[in-house]
Write a structure and sequence with these properties.
- There is one protein chain.
- Helix 3 runs antiparallel to helix 4.
- The protein is 74% helix and 0% strand.
- It has 111 residues and is mostly helical.
- The protein has one domain.
- The longest helix has 23 residues.
């Protein structure tokens, strides 16, 4: 019978952080790819407004569920949530209300 070296495995790197980073990158990249293919140009600011709000909520929920330390020096999910919140407000100021009403009419007809 062999003796297991538990000290070696205790110091091995954790791959959970890499999976969290991959999940965050995928969460941020998917809406950008879908915008290019599916959304007409006049609807871009209202859609960016809606999606950035959802992204801010999802990153905020992710930061809350992982219980990240907000005093860390590195960029965190709560920082990314703040960036998406600023993008949400900026897109809301840039969008024309006429296109927002048209977008909701298109969504209501599709339902």
């Amino acid at each position: 019978m062999s003796v297991w070296k538990t000290e070696h495995y205790a110091n091995s790197p954790k791959h959970e952080a890499l999976l969290d980073l991959a999940a965050l990158a995928g969460l941020a990249a998917v809406p950008g790819l879908l915008f290019n293919w599916l959304i007409p140009l006049p609807f871009m600011p209202p859609v960016i407004c809606l999606v950035s709000f959802l992204m801010a909520c999802s990153f905020g929920w992710f930061a809350h569920s992982t219980r990240e330390d907000r005093r860390s020096a590195s960029a965190l999910a709560s920082d990314v949530a703040g960036i998406f919140a600023v993008l949400w407000v900026g897109a809301a100021f840039a969008s024309d209300p006429k296109y927002l009403v048209q977008l909701f009419e298109v969504l209501a007809r599709a339902s």
